[in-house]
Automatic annotation (TrEMBL):
PANTHER family: RIBOSOMAL BIOGENESIS PROTEIN LAS1L. One of its GO terms (biological process) is maturation of 5.8S rRNA. GO terms for cellular component: Las1 complex; preribosome, large subunit precursor. It comes from the Eukaryota. InterPro entries: Las1. Pfam families: Las1. One of its GO terms (molecular function) is endonuclease activity. This is LAS1 like ribosome biogenesis factor.
Length: 195
């Protein structure tokens, strides 16, 4: 095959319209729409768990926290733990692809991705210190969801009009070089498997 040929990348969503609808519902302020989007993502994971982008999983985890927070059935301590798990997963999974054979500080890796340092500090508090307050958890969730919307979801909207969502598969060496240089594009996130 020619290296310029497009290779199909199997995705769990039916088409771009479904993708766009889920994104709109996730970022709506209506909990019922957000629940519908979370159910669609659960269906995607049931279809192709290994093809669900990490950014989609992280967004779903964080939106689920907000929905459960709004319904008021959990006490503050339970919410802090729920937000904490989602925020720790976000920082760990999003920075994981930048980690080389020699461990590098998460602050530096997150900085390469324009993730605020205080979010990494919040993750550090969850894993190594006292649990942060619910107020800080909510703020962290809001900031990370904004980051995901800007750095991942909105880039997907501008990334082509093909309903089949054909993606060029990058040569492994090119991808490693982009990651090392901290230059991740939307395709990089799109190809991250859920682990």
């Amino acid at each position: 095959k020619k290296s310029s040929e497009k290779k199909r990348h199997v995705v769990a969503w039916i088409n771009k319209a479904e993708w766009d609808q889920v994104m709109d519902q996730l970022y709506s302020k209506d909990p019922s729409l957000q629940r519908f989007a979370l159910n669609r993502i659960s269906a995607w994971k049931a279809r192709y768990a290994s093809s669900t982008p990490v950014a989609v999983d992280c967004t779903a985890d964080l939106v689920r926290c907000q929905v459960l927070d709004r319904v008021g059935q959990l006490d503050a301590d339970d919410l802090v733990l729920l937000y904490g798990a989602a925020l720790v997963r976000f920082v760990n999974l999003i920075t994981e692809r930048q980690q080389g054979k020699i461990a590098r500080p998460l602050r530096r890796l997150a900085g390469n991705l324009n993730i605020p340092e205080w979010v990494v500090n919040l993750r550090h508090d969850f894993t190594h210190r006292r649990l942060p307050t619910l107020k800080w958890c909510r703020k962290g969730c809001k900031v990370v969801l904004e980051w995901l919307q800007q750095e991942y979801w909105s880039r997907q909207l501008g990334g082509g009009t093909n309903d089949n969502w054909d993606l060029h598969e990058d040569d492994e060496d090119e991808e490693e070089m982009r990651v090392r240089n901290g230059k991740l594009n939307s395709d990089t996130f799109c190809l991250l498997p859920f682990k």
